[in-house]
Amino acid sequence: MNNTKAILIRARELIYDPEHWTQMAFARDVIGASCEPENKYAASWCARGAVRRAAHEITGGAGFGYAVNALIRAIKTGSCIMVFNDMEATHADLIDTFNRAIDSVEDYV
Q1: Residue 42 belongs to what domain range?
Q2: How many structural domains are present in the chain?
Q3: Global pTM?
Q4: Which of 8, 32, 36, 57 is the most exposed place for a label (fewest CB within 10 A)?
Q5: pLDDT at 80 over 60
Q6: E strands in 5-52
């Protein structure tokens, strides 16, 4: 499995439970304060924040751009990730978008 696919799979895992998805911030801690996605106290993430956290965990940050681009291509409305996450998508829409992005990435290294 390549890093892009692994990053997208991990990002989807981070926000799979709606309790761990957020809007209007890249990430939030357990009390709801905005924080950096890589923060050890982060407890919920937006789509972009989840990809950033996953890239940090898997590669130290490398591959973030490729994973974001795959996610952008999977958004059916043509919106940017932030608009889609914060204004257009339900949680189910977001998970479906991650699934499409994951399916679109080749398995080669």
Answers
A1: 3-104
A2: 1
A3: 0.94
A4: 32
A5: yes
A6: 27-29, 42-45
